[in-house]
Amino acid sequence: MIELKAISKCYQEGGHSFEALRAINLHVNKGEIFGIIGPSGAGKSTLLRCVNALERPNAGNVLIDGVDLLMLSPEKLREIRRSIGMIFQHFNLLSSRTVYQNIAFPLEIFGLSKKEIKEKVMQMTQLTGLENKLEQYPDQLSGGQKQRVAIARALIAGGKILLCDEATSSLDPETTRSILELLQKIRRELGVTILLITHEMHVIKSICDRVALIEKGEIIEQGETAEIFANPQTDTAKRFVYSTLHIDLPEHLKAQLHQDVTSESLAVLRLWFLQDRAKEAVISHLVKRFYVDINILQASVEYIHERLIGIMTITIEAHGDKLQNCIAYLSEQQIKVEVIGYV
Prior knowledge:
This protein is an alpha/beta fold. It has helices at 44-51, 74-81, 99-109, 114-128, 143-155, 173-190, 201-207, 225-230, 235-245, 251-256, 282-290, 320-332, and strands spanning 2-13, 16-28, 33-37, 59-64, 67-68, 84-88, 161-165, 193-198, 210-215, 218-224, 267-274, 294-304, 307-316, 335-342. The chain has 2 domains: 2-243, P-loop containing nucleotide triphosphate hydrolases (Rossmann fold, 3-Layer(aba) Sandwich); 249-342, Alpha-Beta Plaits.
C-alpha cells in the first residue's frame, strides 16, 4: 500500500546542510494502522509529509499502490492526493465555516453537486458522531469534536489513506481514547490504511499493528507492536516502552543499585513473560529447583493486540554460576531476562 524506498531528505540552513531523513525504508500494508514514534526533532513529521509528497525527498522512492509519486505530473499527483487524507495536532479548521461546510469543503473544490455533497457529508458525520453538530462553528466545539471534523473532512473525498500528525497530542486522556477508538472504527468499516506519528507510546500500544522508531533521521527499530514491547532492542525503544509500562525502579532502590558483584550482592532482574508463560508459576519452579530466595519488587500484565505480556522485577540471592544457571533456566522457559544491576 505505502512503500518508502531509501528516502533521504536534506535541508539547507545558513549555508549548512541538515540531513532530516537518512535512507528510510518502510512498508505499510493495506488496512494496517502503522505508528512512527521518536523524540522531538527525530524526523517524524518530515517522513509523514514525504508520503503525500508535500515534502519531496532528495533521494528515494515514494510508492502508493505501486505508483511512485515522485515520478508523477502535478495533475496526476493531485489526483492521487485525493485518496490521502491528513489530520494535524491543531485541527486546521476554517473558523468562518460550520461543521457541515468544513467537511463539505473538499467536495466543493472537486465540483460535486449539492445533492452529492449532502449525501456524503451525512454519511461521514454519522460515522464520526457529528450528526448533531452540523450547524456549529469550530469555536463552539471541544478539542475532540474538532478532531472528528478534521477526520471527516480528510476522508470525505473517499480517502484510502489517513496520515495523522500528532493528532492526539493536544487532547486530554479521555478524549484521546475516544479519537483512537474512532480511528479503529474507520479502519474496520472503511478499510482505511492509517499511518500516524506520535511521541506517545500509549497511543502506539492502543491501536497500532506495527511500529517504527525513528531517531536522528534513521529508523532504528521496527516490528509488530507486541514484539517491540516484549523485546525492545535499542536504548530508545526501551525508554519509550518503560515509560508506558511504568516499570521504573523505586527511587530508594535506584540509589542502591550498582554494577559491582560481591558475595553479599542481590541481583536485580527484569523478566519479560510472553503469551502463556505469563500465566505459569515459573518463579515457584525456579525457587524449588535452585533453592534461591526471590523477592518480587514489581509485576504487571499488559494485553497488546490480544497478546499477553508480563513484566516482573525481582531480586535474587544467587551469585556466579548459580545466577547464570538461573538465568539460563528462565531463558529456556522463553522468558527474556535483563540484568539491571546489583544491590
